[in-house]
Amino acid sequence: QVQLLESGGGLVQTGDSLRLSCAVSGHPVSSVTMGWFRQAPGKERELVVRSIRNGGNTYYSDSAKGRFTISRDNAKNTFYLQMNSLKPEDTAFYYCAAGHGLIGIHMSDYNYWGPGTQVTVSS
Question: 113 with 38: CB under 8 angstroms?
Answer without folding.
Answer: no
